[in-house]
Amino acid sequence: MAIAEILSDRTSLVKVEHMTHEFRSGRGKIVACDGLNLMVRKGESLGLVGESGSGKSTAIRLMQRFMRPSQGKIWWQGHDVTRWSERRLKPYRQKMGFVSQDPYGSLFPNRTILGNVIEPLIIHGIAEGPERMRRAEALMDRVGIAAIHQQVFPHELSGGQQQRVAIARAMALGPDLLMLDEAVSSLDVSIQAQIINLLQDLKADLDLTYVFVSHNLAVVRLLCESVAVMYLGRVVEFNRTEALFATPRHPYTKMLIQSIPRLTDEGVSALPEDPGRGLIGENSGTGCAYAARCPLAVERCLAEAPGLRQLPSGGEVACHQAK
Amino acid sequence: MALVEIHNLRVRFETDEATIYAVNGIDLMVEPGQSIGIVGESGSGKSVSVTSIPRLLPRTARVEGSVYFNGKDMMRATASELQAIRGHQIGMIFQNPHAYLNPTRTIGKQLMEPLLFHHLAGVKRARAMGMEMLDRVGIVNPKARFDNYPFEFSGGMLQRVLIAMALITGPKLVIADEPTTALDVTVQAQILRLLKEMQRELGMSMIFVTHDLAVASQVSDVIYVMYGGIVVERLPAKQLIRVHRHPYLSGLLASLPRVDEPVGRLPFIPGLPVNTRQPLSGCPFYARCQWHLDQCQSAPPLTLVERDHEAACWLADERRVANGQPS
Ligand SMILES: Nc1ncnc2c1ncn2[C@@H]1O[C@H](COP(=O)(O)OP(=O)(O)OP(=O)(O)O)[C@@H](O)[C@H]1O
Ligand SMILES: Nc1ncnc2c1ncn2[C@@H]1O[C@H](COP(=O)(O)OP(=O)(O)OP(=O)(O)O)[C@@H](O)[C@H]1O
Ligand code: SF4
Ligand SMILES: [Mg+2]
Ligand SMILES: [Mg+2]
């Protein structure tokens, strides 16, 4: 996202500026996020897609300040929270919910469903007694958990029901923003459809905004206004959702969209062919991270890492060759 | 001779509170070199069915019926016979990589294990094969990654390690349970190509369990659709869209989000999943089926509706007419 725009912004829900994160291990370091610039405005849900291991989960964990970045800044509602203590963050955390891929793992197994949903209200000291109970019940009602299920334990519910509870819990404090990391991937197709419908409704009715990480591009398309495509720790393309799907610019995005298995009335798309090693086949370390696989790569791509640049047609792309 | 032959497989779990009827009589056949896709509702018995082939179900499982692998009666195989088959002739890729990798051992050590355990290679050769396999599943810079620990890999990268482990011995059969759900579509395509390649090179057979109907029809020859612990439809993969008969499969196809359709709400199958705590009676889809008749309270058998195509629905023939498809 254009850095000038990010720097001048005062109203976004979350933004990150040159955010970098390194993991160190015995054998050296892994740069999981490499100078990310991202911004999420109210009503403008952001999809994060890209190669597995490209740093999407790391980015979303940093944005929630579950970790501190090695470099760069994180802003919540105009405050630089990069170095804030957990105590200072707490009141702001209410405005931000999180839903993970594993609904069961995110619930307390020895508390009832109601107990799980009410817990954040207790921690943050919101409402009391019957009023607190009423709020919890209203939340469960909203996500479609029947009254008879409120006194049971998480393991007695199906995966789809557990995910509804996880969403209710994430919404307990009335957040403006929900961050969802592969939140529908493990669900059955028909249940996935119901959860997607629920997320569409919540967005429309409650003015919720999402940061939505997913490998399923068809789902991202249904829920997000814009999409950032990540490759090896960097954003390689950013655009409005329709534009990104209609005219992908970065060679990686093109391949991503071409690789989606499609069912049409004629049958299924063929397995895409092996794109091979690209023209160069080896990364130089200094150049574009995609060079080794890229069909468009030229000398310059090995020498110089492309930064994100604005395209006249709209959108941004980090590629020397993209038009 | 078929490589895998399953007849009337039934699996129950006896727990403290209840009996769970997980698989209620399925037949399944895999020819050498063939690939079978299994799709179906969560809890419909897909994982339990395929785990019964290498006999890896927990002790609480009560298994009936017959399972043959490569001519061997697996229900009567001894522990040492089973050990020789698992991880060598049958490679397995499971849903949750975290549960199958040891967090305290490096990726490389775990990858070499099947080769060393089955005496298929010495350490030096195993190491080389491990690196090559990591490269083939698309792990960038395998040399540097070989000595990493599982926590240093993302979920999708771990899944690829598991795939590499399953394929490294060149098995006769690979059982892949949701192997690509955690991967982006380009890596997914790469893994699917690798699996197809191994099939060609080694004549390997494959059983591929997935929620993604498009992927299932890309990689399989035949698709089995499961619901409520039985097979409700079996059809050639290439014809999935055009000739499907069972109302459950129609509902499933309708609820798939597609990239080329208008943005909006998705159709879904209303109603609750099957209660596995009761023995099956009648059609398992009865309560959710918009077409059901009184007749459907008795179980519809899996019957041939056309060449290579079976469905378990009393209306399988009428619905074809209703859909206006040629007979
Ligand atoms: N705790 C950690 N220690 C060391 N390295 C890590 C750790 N967590 C993540 N990494 C590394 O950081 C990179 C990015 O990982 P991340 O989990 O953010 O990827 P991702 O885009 O979410 O991938 P996926 O789509 O597979 O979930 C990977 O190379 C991974 O190996
Ligand atoms: N060890 C076990 N003990 C008790 N019940 C079990 C056990 N394993 C599986 N089940 C039950 O058996 C039924 C079939 O489970 P299975 O895991 O085969 O479903 P599946 O079709 O693979 O579903 P999914 O798509 O969610 O992976 C379910 O009702 C499940 O809860
Ligand atoms: S047998 Fe009856 S209830 Fe079952 S799917 Fe067919 S029409 Fe529906
Ligand atoms: Mg992730
Ligand atoms: Mg399963």
Query: Stretches of chain A where pLDDT falls below 50 for ≥5 residues?
Result: none
Chain-averaged pLDDT of chain B: 91
Beta percentage of chain A is 15-25%
CATH class of the largest domain in chain B: Alpha Beta
Describe the structure.
The complex is a heterodimer of chains A (323) and B (327). Chain A is of the alpha/beta class and 323 residues long. Chain A is 32% helix and 23% strand. Chain A has 2 domains: 3-95 and 175-317, Rossmann fold (3-Layer(aba) Sandwich); 103-174, no CATH class. Chain A has helices spanning 3-8, 56-63, 86-93, 113-123, 129-143, 159-170, 189-206, 217-223, 241-246, 251-258, 299-303; strands spanning 14-25, 28-40, 46-50, 71-76, 79-80, 96-99, 177-181, 209-213, 226-231, 234-240, 263-264, 267-268, 309-310, 316-317. The model of chain A has no long low-confidence stretch (mean pLDDT 89). With 327 residues, chain B is of the alpha/beta class. Chain B folds into 2 domains: 36-59 and 78-225, Rossmann fold (3-Layer(aba) Sandwich); 246-257 and 266-326, no CATH class. Helices cover 31% and strands 23% of the residues of chain B. Chain B is built from 12 helices and 12 strands. Chain B has helices at residues 46-51, 79-85, 97-100, 107-117, 123-136, 142-145, 155-167, 185-202, 213-219, 240-243, 247-254, 316-322; strands spanning 4-14, 19-30, 35-40, 61-69, 72-73, 90-93, 173-177, 205-209, 222-227, 230-236, 303-306, 309-311. Chain B has an 8-stranded mixed sheet. A 4-stranded antiparallel sheet of chain B has the order 2-1-4-5. In chain B, strand 7, helix 8 (185-202) and strand 8 (205-209) form a beta-alpha-beta unit. In chain B, helix 4 (107-117) packs across helix 5, helix 4 (107-117) runs parallel beside helix 7 (155-167) and helix 5 packs across helix 7 (155-167). Iron/sulfur cluster binds at residues 246-247, 283, 285-286, 289, 291-292, 296, 300, 313-315 of chain B.
